[in-house]
Amino acid sequence: MEVGNIFRHLLVHNEAFVKSTESTKFLAYATQQNPYITLLTCADSRVQGNILGIDIFNKIFIIRNAGNQVAINRGTVEYSILVLHTPVMLVLGHTDCGAVKFATHACITQSKEIVAMSKSFDKLINADYSTISREVKGEMLPLTIPIERGIPQLSKFGDEKKGLAYLSQINVDYQIEKTLKYYGDLVKENKLTIIGGVYDFVGAYSKELGRILITNINGNISPNGLQESARTIIKRIPNYDESSQAYKTVCQLIEEKVTRI
Ligand SMILES: [Zn+2]
Predict the structure, then answer these.
(1) How many domains are there within the chain?
(2) How far is the CA of 75 from the centre of ligand 1 (A)?
(3) Residue 65 alpha carbon to ligand 1 centre in Å
């Protein structure tokens, strides 16, 4: 799309939003915000807040950068957790992440692991990042720390999309590890729950495209421990009728969506 149309869209779409939104909605929160989720996610345009609900106004405090890294926006993360007191922080990676791809390329082209890699990673190995500026590289290179941890496992994966999803998952674990160093006490006191997930729009985890898979809860990544943690969190809903259909649906979703590669 060229700039004239992009600018026209900007004007027209915002005006349509103004016309379709009751002013009372804004007035009620004119001087305060009360979000309940701190969302740290990637800047990728395929990842948008509406995957968490149709209307996330005043509900989700969104922090975005390349590769959903805590260190890049440490102050904003801290503001949301310590000043806004969101009870949940969601660290959300995604499939086909460009930042993860860059870091993976940087790792494998500089190590002997490349020999052990499956042939299906040839496309990534041969990618050319030579024209990317120092500024862009500087922001993505810290991701080589978590990615290096996952590289030895890559030969297990037959296809690149699954391997890259696995590395996004490993990156989320690392970012949660960092977050726990700073805010682990709040987690221990049950004031903060840190949830890690991978938004899958390529079908790396299941055939259902667009799913958020829950891959980490407060640093817990063991398959059984993860499911158990998820069920424990649901039990915190006051007076939740465990014989209701809604409860059964949630349990079913935990079975399907709380899982790791
Ligand atoms: Zn990304």
Answers:
(1) 1
(2) 21
(3) 8
The residue range of the domain holding 223 is 3-93+172-257
* pLDDT per residue as tens, the chain (261 positions): 999 999 999 999 999 999 999 999 999 999 999 999 999 999 999 999 999 998 999 999 999 999 999 999 999 999 999 999 999 999 999 999 999 999 999 988 887 655 566 677 888 888 999 999 999 999 999 999 999 999 889 888 878 999 999 999 999 999 999 999 999 999 999 999 999 999 999 999 999 999 999 999 999 999 889 999 999 999 999 999 999 999 999 999 999 999 999
What is the DSSP code (8-state) at residue 86? Answer: -
Q: Which residues have C-beta within 8 Å of that of residue 9, sequence separation ≥ 6?
A: 1
Q: CA-CA distances (angstroms) from residue 246 to 154, 195, 252?
A: 38, 22, 10
Taking the centre of ligand 1 as the mean of its atom positions, its distance from the CA of residue 62, in whole angstroms, is 15
Residues 6 or more apart whose CB falls under 8 angstroms from that of 238 comprise none
CATH number, domain of 73, equals 3.40.1050
Ligand 1 center from residue 167 Cα (angstroms): 11
Residue 70 in any domain: the answer is yes
Distance 198 CA to ligand 1 centre (A): 10
List residues, by chain if needed, whose CB lies under 5 Å from ion ligand 1: 42, 44, 97, 99
Per the domain annotation, does 56 fall within a domain? yes
| Torsion-angle region of 58 (φ positive above 0: left; ψ -120 to 50: alpha; else: beta) | left
